[in-house]
Amino acid sequence: MCGRKAEKLKGKEKSQSQGQVPDRQDRFAKAGQNLDPLGRTIDYLRISVTDRCNLRCIYCMPKGSCRCEQEPPLSLEELLEIAGTAADFGISHIKVTGGEPLLREDTPELCRRLKAIPGIQTVTLTTNGLLLQKYLPALKEAGIDGINVSLDTLDPERYRQITGGGSLSQVLASIEAALAEEIPTKINAALLDPEAAEDSLALAALAEKRPIAVRFIEMMPIGCGSRFPGCDNRLILKKLLERWPDLKKEKAALGYGPAVYYTSDRLTGWIGFISAIHGTFCQSCRRLRLSCHGRLTPCLCYGEGIELRPLLRQEGKEALYQAFCEAVKRKPEGHCFSQQEKISEKRMMSQIGG
After folding, report:
1. What is the pLDDT of residue 315?
2. Fewer CB within 10 A of the terminal residue: the chain, N end or C end?
3. Does residue 96 sit in helix, strand or coil?
Protein backbone atom coordinates (compact mmCIF):
# COMPACT_ATOMS: atom_id res chain seq x y z
CA MET A 1 0.00 0.00 0.00
CA CYS A 2 2.66 2.50 1.08
CA GLY A 3 5.00 1.68 -1.78
CA ARG A 4 2.15 2.06 -4.27
CA LYS A 5 1.38 5.52 -2.88
CA ALA A 6 4.97 6.60 -3.42
CA GLU A 7 5.17 5.13 -6.90
CA LYS A 8 1.93 6.92 -7.80
CA LEU A 9 3.34 10.29 -6.73
CA LYS A 10 6.66 9.69 -8.42
CA GLY A 11 4.84 8.45 -11.51
CA LYS A 12 3.01 11.79 -11.74
CA GLU A 13 6.32 13.60 -11.55
CA LYS A 14 7.70 11.59 -14.47
CA SER A 15 4.60 11.04 -16.59
CA GLN A 16 5.16 13.92 -18.97
CA SER A 17 8.79 13.15 -19.72
CA GLN A 18 9.23 9.39 -20.06
CA GLY A 19 11.06 8.25 -23.12
CA GLN A 20 12.72 11.59 -23.83
CA VAL A 21 16.33 10.74 -22.97
CA PRO A 22 18.23 11.23 -26.25
CA ASP A 23 21.21 9.50 -27.72
CA ARG A 24 23.46 12.48 -27.03
CA GLN A 25 22.84 12.32 -23.28
CA ASP A 26 23.34 8.54 -23.26
CA ARG A 27 26.69 9.07 -24.94
CA PHE A 28 27.94 11.47 -22.29
CA ALA A 29 26.43 9.55 -19.37
CA LYS A 30 28.04 6.29 -20.50
CA ALA A 31 31.36 8.08 -20.72
CA GLY A 32 31.06 8.79 -16.99
CA GLN A 33 31.44 12.55 -17.29
CA ASN A 34 28.83 13.13 -14.59
CA LEU A 35 30.45 10.78 -12.05
CA ASP A 36 32.33 12.58 -9.30
CA PRO A 37 35.57 11.29 -7.69
CA LEU A 38 33.52 9.27 -5.17
CA GLY A 39 31.44 7.58 -7.85
CA ARG A 40 28.29 9.62 -7.23
CA THR A 41 26.17 10.26 -10.33
CA ILE A 42 25.50 14.00 -10.56
CA ASP A 43 22.20 14.38 -12.40
CA TYR A 44 20.32 17.08 -10.46
CA LEU A 45 20.74 20.84 -10.94
CA ARG A 46 19.13 23.56 -8.82
CA ILE A 47 18.76 26.71 -10.92
CA SER A 48 18.14 29.98 -9.10
CA VAL A 49 16.41 32.57 -11.28
CA THR A 50 16.50 35.51 -8.84
CA ASP A 51 17.95 36.51 -5.48
CA ARG A 52 14.95 38.74 -4.74
CA CYS A 53 12.09 37.71 -2.47
CA ASN A 54 8.73 39.14 -1.42
CA LEU A 55 9.16 37.84 2.15
CA ARG A 56 11.76 38.67 4.78
CA CYS A 57 12.14 35.39 6.65
CA ILE A 58 14.30 35.89 9.72
CA TYR A 59 16.59 32.94 8.91
CA CYS A 60 17.02 33.75 5.23
CA MET A 61 16.68 37.42 4.27
CA PRO A 62 15.55 39.42 7.32
CA LYS A 63 14.68 43.09 7.02
CA GLY A 64 17.78 45.23 6.67
CA SER A 65 19.98 42.39 5.41
CA CYS A 66 19.17 42.42 1.69
CA ARG A 67 22.34 42.44 -0.36
CA CYS A 68 20.97 41.66 -3.78
CA GLU A 69 23.56 41.95 -6.51
CA GLN A 70 23.48 45.02 -8.74
CA GLU A 71 24.20 42.95 -11.83
CA PRO A 72 21.00 41.61 -13.42
CA PRO A 73 20.33 37.88 -13.23
CA LEU A 74 20.91 35.61 -16.17
CA SER A 75 18.39 36.08 -18.95
CA LEU A 76 15.89 33.43 -19.97
CA GLU A 77 17.97 32.50 -23.00
CA GLU A 78 21.17 32.30 -20.94
CA LEU A 79 19.51 30.01 -18.40
CA LEU A 80 18.25 27.79 -21.20
CA GLU A 81 21.67 27.60 -22.84
CA ILE A 82 23.24 26.52 -19.57
CA ALA A 83 20.46 24.01 -18.97
CA GLY A 84 20.95 22.56 -22.45
CA THR A 85 24.64 22.06 -21.77
CA ALA A 86 23.77 20.54 -18.39
CA ALA A 87 21.51 18.03 -20.16
CA ASP A 88 24.33 17.12 -22.56
CA PHE A 89 26.52 16.56 -19.52
CA GLY A 90 24.05 14.19 -17.86
CA ILE A 91 21.75 16.40 -15.78
CA SER A 92 18.20 15.06 -16.01
CA HIS A 93 16.40 16.71 -13.07
CA ILE A 94 16.08 20.48 -12.56
CA LYS A 95 14.71 22.42 -9.60
CA VAL A 96 13.85 26.08 -10.29
CA THR A 97 14.50 28.17 -7.18
CA GLY A 98 15.23 31.69 -5.92
CA GLY A 99 14.89 33.90 -3.88
CA GLU A 100 11.28 33.68 -4.90
CA PRO A 101 11.27 32.40 -8.50
CA LEU A 102 7.74 33.60 -9.25
CA LEU A 103 8.89 37.20 -8.91
CA ARG A 104 10.16 36.62 -12.46
CA GLU A 105 7.17 36.65 -14.78
CA ASP A 106 9.02 34.46 -17.27
CA THR A 107 9.46 31.57 -14.81
CA PRO A 108 6.53 29.52 -16.22
CA GLU A 109 7.95 30.01 -19.73
CA LEU A 110 11.36 28.92 -18.46
CA CYS A 111 9.80 25.77 -16.99
CA ARG A 112 8.01 25.04 -20.25
CA ARG A 113 11.18 25.36 -22.29
CA LEU A 114 13.27 23.41 -19.78
CA LYS A 115 10.78 20.57 -20.15
CA ALA A 116 11.40 20.59 -23.90
CA ILE A 117 15.18 20.09 -23.59
CA PRO A 118 16.10 16.55 -24.65
CA GLY A 119 17.35 14.61 -21.64
CA ILE A 120 15.56 16.66 -18.98
CA GLN A 121 13.16 14.27 -17.27
CA THR A 122 11.67 16.42 -14.50
CA VAL A 123 11.34 20.14 -13.80
CA THR A 124 10.08 21.18 -10.38
CA LEU A 125 9.70 24.50 -8.58
CA THR A 126 10.20 25.72 -5.03
CA THR A 127 8.24 28.77 -3.87
CA ASN A 128 6.97 30.56 -0.78
CA GLY A 129 3.47 30.24 -2.24
CA LEU A 130 2.37 33.86 -2.20
CA LEU A 131 2.24 34.17 -5.99
CA LEU A 132 1.55 30.53 -6.75
CA GLN A 133 -2.20 30.82 -7.40
CA LYS A 134 -1.56 33.58 -9.94
CA TYR A 135 0.93 31.51 -11.92
CA LEU A 136 -0.51 28.05 -11.32
CA PRO A 137 -2.42 27.81 -14.64
CA ALA A 138 0.73 28.74 -16.58
CA LEU A 139 2.85 26.30 -14.57
CA LYS A 140 0.29 23.55 -15.15
CA GLU A 141 0.31 24.26 -18.88
CA ALA A 142 4.12 24.25 -18.82
CA GLY A 143 4.00 20.68 -17.51
CA ILE A 144 5.58 21.32 -14.11
CA ASP A 145 6.37 18.00 -12.43
CA GLY A 146 6.11 19.14 -8.83
CA ILE A 147 5.92 22.16 -6.53
CA ASN A 148 7.58 22.65 -3.14
CA VAL A 149 6.06 25.29 -0.87
CA SER A 150 8.02 26.72 2.07
CA LEU A 151 5.84 26.81 5.20
CA ASP A 152 7.27 26.72 8.73
CA THR A 153 4.15 27.06 10.90
CA LEU A 154 0.36 27.06 10.74
CA ASP A 155 0.06 29.70 13.45
CA PRO A 156 -0.82 32.99 11.66
CA GLU A 157 1.01 35.23 14.12
CA ARG A 158 4.15 33.08 14.17
CA TYR A 159 4.02 32.97 10.39
CA ARG A 160 3.96 36.78 10.23
CA GLN A 161 6.85 36.98 12.68
CA ILE A 162 8.98 34.45 10.79
CA THR A 163 8.27 35.83 7.32
CA GLY A 164 8.21 39.52 8.11
CA GLY A 165 4.52 39.95 7.33
CA GLY A 166 3.45 37.19 4.92
CA SER A 167 -0.14 35.98 4.51
CA LEU A 168 -0.62 32.42 5.76
CA SER A 169 -4.11 32.16 4.27
CA GLN A 170 -2.74 33.05 0.84
CA VAL A 171 -0.13 30.29 1.04
CA LEU A 172 -2.63 27.69 2.24
CA ALA A 173 -4.98 28.60 -0.60
CA SER A 174 -2.13 28.13 -3.07
CA ILE A 175 -1.36 24.68 -1.66
CA GLU A 176 -4.99 23.62 -1.98
CA ALA A 177 -5.10 24.96 -5.54
CA ALA A 178 -1.99 22.98 -6.52
CA LEU A 179 -3.46 19.81 -5.03
CA ALA A 180 -6.74 20.43 -6.85
CA GLU A 181 -4.75 20.50 -10.11
CA GLU A 182 -3.19 17.15 -9.09
CA ILE A 183 0.31 18.61 -9.19
CA PRO A 184 2.61 16.67 -6.81
CA THR A 185 3.03 19.07 -3.90
CA LYS A 186 5.46 19.12 -0.99
CA ILE A 187 5.75 21.40 2.01
CA ASN A 188 9.21 22.37 3.26
CA ALA A 189 9.35 23.35 6.93
CA ALA A 190 12.51 24.67 8.62
CA LEU A 191 11.97 24.88 12.38
CA LEU A 192 14.02 27.53 14.16
CA ASP A 193 14.67 25.82 17.51
CA PRO A 194 13.59 22.81 19.62
CA GLU A 195 10.61 24.74 21.00
CA ALA A 196 9.26 25.06 17.46
CA ALA A 197 8.83 21.29 17.40
CA GLU A 198 5.30 22.01 18.58
CA ASP A 199 4.60 23.29 15.07
CA SER A 200 5.51 19.91 13.61
CA LEU A 201 2.28 18.19 14.68
CA ALA A 202 -0.01 20.69 12.97
CA LEU A 203 2.12 20.75 9.83
CA ALA A 204 2.35 16.97 9.63
CA ALA A 205 -1.42 16.72 10.06
CA LEU A 206 -1.80 18.35 6.64
CA ALA A 207 -0.87 14.93 5.27
CA GLU A 208 -3.78 13.19 7.00
CA LYS A 209 -6.39 14.08 4.40
CA ARG A 210 -4.23 15.25 1.53
CA PRO A 211 -1.80 13.47 -0.83
CA ILE A 212 0.95 15.84 0.22
CA ALA A 213 4.51 15.33 1.49
CA VAL A 214 5.34 17.42 4.56
CA ARG A 215 9.14 17.62 4.93
CA PHE A 216 11.09 18.90 7.91
CA ILE A 217 14.46 20.42 6.99
CA GLU A 218 17.12 20.86 9.64
CA MET A 219 18.37 24.44 9.78
CA MET A 220 21.74 24.74 8.07
CA PRO A 221 24.36 27.21 9.36
CA ILE A 222 24.42 29.18 6.11
CA GLY A 223 23.87 32.94 6.03
CA CYS A 224 21.30 34.10 8.59
CA GLY A 225 20.42 30.48 9.32
CA SER A 226 23.55 30.31 11.48
CA ARG A 227 21.80 32.55 14.05
CA PHE A 228 19.33 29.80 14.96
CA PRO A 229 19.95 26.41 16.59
CA GLY A 230 17.31 24.68 14.50
CA CYS A 231 15.44 21.58 15.55
CA ASP A 232 16.84 18.05 15.52
CA ASN A 233 14.70 15.95 13.18
CA ARG A 234 15.02 13.04 15.61
CA LEU A 235 13.09 15.11 18.14
CA ILE A 236 10.38 15.81 15.58
CA LEU A 237 10.10 12.14 14.65
CA LYS A 238 9.76 11.20 18.31
CA LYS A 239 6.93 13.70 18.72
CA LEU A 240 5.17 12.55 15.56
CA LEU A 241 5.35 8.90 16.68
CA GLU A 242 3.22 9.86 19.65
CA ARG A 243 0.48 10.93 17.22
CA TRP A 244 1.04 8.25 14.57
CA PRO A 245 2.71 5.28 16.31
CA ASP A 246 2.64 3.18 13.13
CA LEU A 247 4.89 5.59 11.22
CA LYS A 248 7.38 3.58 9.19
CA LYS A 249 9.95 4.36 6.55
CA GLU A 250 8.66 4.47 3.01
CA LYS A 251 10.69 2.11 0.84
CA ALA A 252 10.11 3.86 -2.46
CA ALA A 253 11.64 7.27 -3.13
CA LEU A 254 9.42 10.31 -3.64
CA GLY A 255 11.63 12.36 -5.91
CA TYR A 256 15.34 12.81 -6.46
CA GLY A 257 16.52 14.64 -3.34
CA PRO A 258 17.85 13.50 0.05
CA ALA A 259 14.56 13.29 1.99
CA VAL A 260 13.73 10.15 3.96
CA TYR A 261 9.98 9.56 3.99
CA TYR A 262 7.62 7.95 6.48
CA THR A 263 4.04 6.84 6.05
CA SER A 264 1.19 5.64 8.22
CA ASP A 265 -2.11 3.89 7.62
CA ARG A 266 -3.73 7.04 9.03
CA LEU A 267 -2.01 9.32 6.52
CA THR A 268 -3.04 10.01 2.95
CA GLY A 269 0.30 11.68 2.31
CA TRP A 270 3.82 11.39 3.67
CA ILE A 271 6.15 12.84 6.30
CA GLY A 272 9.69 13.57 5.15
CA PHE A 273 12.95 14.47 6.87
CA ILE A 274 15.92 16.26 5.31
CA SER A 275 18.51 15.91 8.06
CA ALA A 276 21.60 17.76 6.94
CA ILE A 277 22.96 17.96 10.50
CA HIS A 278 21.86 14.78 12.28
CA GLY A 279 21.54 12.46 9.31
CA THR A 280 24.18 13.52 6.82
CA PHE A 281 23.33 12.39 3.28
CA CYS A 282 26.45 13.66 1.51
CA GLN A 283 27.41 10.14 0.45
CA SER A 284 24.44 10.11 -1.91
CA CYS A 285 24.40 13.78 -2.97
CA ARG A 286 23.56 14.14 -6.67
CA ARG A 287 23.32 17.90 -7.12
CA LEU A 288 24.97 21.05 -8.34
CA ARG A 289 23.66 24.59 -7.78
CA LEU A 290 23.54 27.48 -10.22
CA SER A 291 23.06 30.98 -8.80
CA CYS A 292 20.96 33.52 -10.67
CA HIS A 293 24.17 35.34 -11.62
CA GLY A 294 25.83 32.25 -13.04
CA ARG A 295 28.00 30.73 -10.33
CA LEU A 296 28.04 26.93 -10.48
CA THR A 297 28.62 25.52 -6.99
CA PRO A 298 29.43 21.89 -6.15
CA CYS A 299 28.43 22.08 -2.46
CA LEU A 300 26.25 24.36 -0.36
CA CYS A 301 28.87 24.50 2.39
CA TYR A 302 31.69 25.96 0.33
CA GLY A 303 31.76 29.28 -1.49
CA GLU A 304 34.16 28.18 -4.19
CA GLY A 305 32.46 27.88 -7.55
CA ILE A 306 32.84 28.40 -11.28
CA GLU A 307 31.54 31.58 -12.90
CA LEU A 308 29.59 30.61 -16.02
CA ARG A 309 28.48 34.06 -17.18
CA PRO A 310 31.84 34.99 -18.80
CA LEU A 311 32.12 31.53 -20.34
CA LEU A 312 28.62 31.84 -21.69
CA ARG A 313 29.24 35.23 -23.25
CA GLN A 314 32.81 34.85 -24.43
CA GLU A 315 33.71 31.20 -24.96
CA GLY A 316 30.58 29.21 -25.76
CA LYS A 317 29.07 25.80 -25.24
CA GLU A 318 32.23 23.71 -25.08
CA ALA A 319 33.61 25.88 -22.27
CA LEU A 320 30.31 25.53 -20.42
CA TYR A 321 30.48 21.77 -20.78
CA GLN A 322 34.01 21.68 -19.40
CA ALA A 323 32.87 23.85 -16.47
CA PHE A 324 30.34 21.16 -15.51
CA CYS A 325 33.09 18.54 -15.73
CA GLU A 326 35.30 20.67 -13.48
CA ALA A 327 32.51 21.31 -10.96
CA VAL A 328 31.91 17.59 -10.59
CA LYS A 329 35.64 16.96 -10.10
CA ARG A 330 35.60 19.53 -7.27
CA LYS A 331 32.63 18.02 -5.47
CA PRO A 332 33.78 17.39 -1.88
CA GLU A 333 33.19 14.23 0.10
CA GLY A 334 30.83 16.08 2.42
CA HIS A 335 29.92 19.33 4.12
CA CYS A 336 31.52 20.74 7.27
CA PHE A 337 28.45 22.14 9.06
CA SER A 338 29.71 20.76 12.37
CA GLN A 339 32.89 22.89 11.99
CA GLN A 340 31.56 26.33 11.20
CA GLU A 341 35.03 27.85 10.98
CA LYS A 342 35.56 25.75 7.84
CA ILE A 343 32.41 26.94 6.08
CA SER A 344 33.62 29.17 3.25
CA GLU A 345 30.18 30.04 1.83
CA LYS A 346 29.45 33.59 3.02
CA ARG A 347 26.46 34.42 0.84
CA MET A 348 22.86 34.30 2.01
CA MET A 349 20.76 31.34 0.99
CA SER A 350 18.72 33.56 -1.34
CA GLN A 351 21.91 34.46 -3.20
CA ILE A 352 23.06 30.85 -3.49
CA GLY A 353 19.68 29.52 -4.59
CA GLY A 354 17.69 27.77 -1.86
Report:
1. 85
2. N
3. strand
List C-alpha distances in Å: 11 to 26, 250, 252, 306.
22, 16, 11, 34
Q: Which of 177, 120, 128, 170 is nearest to 145 (CA)?
A: 120
Omega cis (within 30) before 99: yes
User: What average pLDDT is seen over the chain?
Assistant: 85
User: Rounded to two decimals, what is the model's pTM?
Assistant: 0.87
Neighbours of 124 (CB within 10 A): 23
Report how far residue 54's alpha carbon sits from residue 61's, in angstroms, rounded to the nearest whole number.
10
HSE-up of residue 31 (Cα within 13 Å, Cβ side)? 11
- Residues facing 271 on adjacent strands: 214, 262
What counts of helices (H) and strands (E) characterise the chain? 13, 12
- Strand 295-297, strand 306-307: pairing: antiparallel
Q: d(Cα 58, Cα 68) in Å, to the nearest integer?
A: 16
pLDDT tens for 5-57 read 554 454 444 443 333 334 444 444 445 689 888 899 999 999 999 999 999 98
- What own/partner pairs with CB < 8 Å and gap ≥ 24 does 164-173 have? 164/55, 164/56, 164/57, 164/58, 164/62, 164/63, 165/55, 165/56, 166/55, 166/128, 166/130, 167/130, 170/129, 170/130, 170/133, 171/128, 171/129, 171/130, 171/132, 173/133
Fold (topology level) of 2-17+40-352: TIM Barrel (3.20.20)
* Bigger pLDDT: 281 vs 38: 38
Domain ranges of the chain: 2-17+40-352
pLDDT per residue as tens digits for the range 182-228: 999 999 999 988 888 888 999 999 999 999 999 999 887 666 656 77
Task: Kindly state the DSSP code that residue 214 receives in the 8-state scheme.
Answer: E
